[in-house]
Amino acid sequence: MPHMLPLVHSGAIGSDLAIEQDHGAMVRRTVLPGGVRVFTETIPGMRSATLGAWVGVGSRDENPEHAGSTHFLEHLLFKGTARRSALDIAEAFDRVGGESNALTGKEFTCYYARVIDRDLPMAIDVVLDMVTSARLDQADFDMERGVILEELAMAEDDPGDVIHERFAQAVLGGHALGRPIGGTPEIIEAVSRDAVEAHYREHYTPAGLIVTAAGGVDHDAVCAMVTDAVARGGWDLAAASSPVGRRDRFAPVEATATPETRIVKHELEQAHVLLGTRGFSATDDRRAVLSVYNAILGGGMSSRLFQEIREKRGLTYSVYSFGSPSTETGLFGVYAACAPGKADEVTRLLGHELERMAEGVTPGELERAQGQIAGSIVLRLEDSYSRMSRLGKAELVYGDLWSIAEMLDEVKAVTVDQVQALAADIAARERVSVRVGPA
């Protein structure tokens, strides 16, 4: 059986790790001059290729002067470089039927492109041109400020976005992880172009860059193209530098949830309710147990929440449970949308199901959840984007890369007693209730 690939940040320049994965896929990792990391997964027979350029900086890393900069940069890097206009960047991918986009998280930013394998050289050239040589013009900055404000306004009109943001703020208090990823209108209005550029210069460096590629890719060719593209962007690769280290997963998170109900008034047809608490970190040893617990509680149509609140009582259309991990901590919650007059009853039922899980689960529920998770793991990794994303998160967050077989074995090994113990832990934690809807 393939073995877990351990990842270290202290490897020498040029050091290479390689291991065969499931069904002949080959994963390789190389540290290039300057500390740039290249991480690839070659998948036999796959004609697509997805490239990701990752920087391990997210909204939690902003200092007060740079607040809002991370999300601002996600927009600005598409506005042009010394070699390309914004239209040039868009046309490069449209011309070959590819796609490009970016995502900003609380702990990382990723710029990615998905193309046919033959067009990967173009994707590497364009994406790394954006990352290394962003123009950051004042005119583009002023225009994009308005675009971001519209994006925030759109999110504020979405009760799902609102309730999850308010929930994170309520549970994590003043911790940086409790801040909204996109910032607030006040923050975006206040931040200056100079502050955003300073944030860019500080964090977008060779030692902080991770390039991942998956699908129909050749590792050595990707390394050569990345080296050329980064050098063409003017980054200094001559200085010996070790890659930026991962976050301290044992750093204390002092913000503590206290029992409370937060109500956000919106003129809506439904009330949206979320009940939850502090969850578990991305590297918690119980992550497989949590996935099984989540599947039983609210992960599908056969889950307890769906059956009890929707099927038996007809109180909601949408109901689910979720876990949202980060390096040192996480969030866990249960959500439903219902008629405003039923919000109190639905909130009570959500809490009841959290407590009932602590009384135990059946072998049948365990087996069904394990099958659901196993299927979702395999299906989720059937495309090159998912494989690319898995590599980036392994490098930035986990410090190791499990094969599909190992992930399936880990889920299969979960027991009824482990699920019950974790359920009792969650049920005993202080909860926060958030409601969005009519007064």
What does this molecule look like?
The chain is of the alpha+beta class and 439 residues long. It has two domains: 8-232, Cytochrome Bc1 Complex, Chain A, domain 1 (2-Layer Sandwich); 260-437, 2-Layer Sandwich (Cytochrome Bc1 Complex, Chain A, domain 1), CATH 3.30.830.10. It is 42% helix and 20% strand. The protein contains 15 helices and 14 strands. The chain has helices spanning 69-76, 86-94, 120-132, 138-156, 159-172, 185-190, 193-203, 219-232, 287-298, 304-311, 343-357, 363-380, 384-398, 404-412, 416-427, and strands at 5-6, 16-20, 26-31, 37-42, 48-55, 99-104, 109-116, 209-215, 260-265, 271-278, 316-325, 330-338, 400-401, 432-437. The strands form three sheets. It has a seven-stranded mixed sheet, with helices on both faces. It has a five-stranded mixed sheet with strand order 9-14-10-12-11, sandwiched between helices. Strands 1-13 form a two-stranded antiparallel ribbon. A hairpin with a 4-residue loop joins β11 and β12 (330-338). The mean pLDDT is 92.
What's the arrangement of secondary structure elements?
Layout: E1 5-6, E2 16-20, E3 26-31, E4 37-42, E5 48-55, H1 69-76, H2 86-94, E6 99-104, E7 109-116, H3 120-132, H4 138-156, H5 159-172, H6 185-190, H7 193-203, E8 209-215, H8 219-232, E9 260-265, E10 271-278, H9 287-298, H10 304-311, E11 316-325, E12 330-338, H11 343-357, H12 363-380, H13 384-398, E13 400-401, H14 404-412, H15 416-427, E14 432-437
Number of domains: 2
β-strand amount? 15-25%
Separation of the first and last Cα atoms? 57 Å
Please identify the structural class as seen in this structure.
alpha+beta
Using the alpha-carbon principal axes, give the shape: globular
Second rung of CATH, namely the architecture of the largest domain:
2-Layer Sandwich
- The CATH topology of the largest domain is Cytochrome Bc1 Complex, Chain A, domain 1
Count, helices: 15
As a percent range, the share of helical residues equals 40-55%
Mean pLDDT: 92
Oligomer: single chain
Strand order within the widest sheet? Answer: 2-3-4-8-5-7-6
Number of strands: 14
In CATH terms, the superfamily of the largest domain is: Metalloenzyme, LuxS/M16 peptidase-like
Q: Any low-confidence stretches, pLDDT <50, length ≥5?
A: none
- In N-to-C order, the SSE pattern is EEEEEHHEEHHHHHEHEEHHEEHHHEHHE
The radius of gyration over CA amounts to 23 Å
For this structure, what is the CATH class of the largest domain? Alpha Beta
Largest sheet: 7 strands, mixed
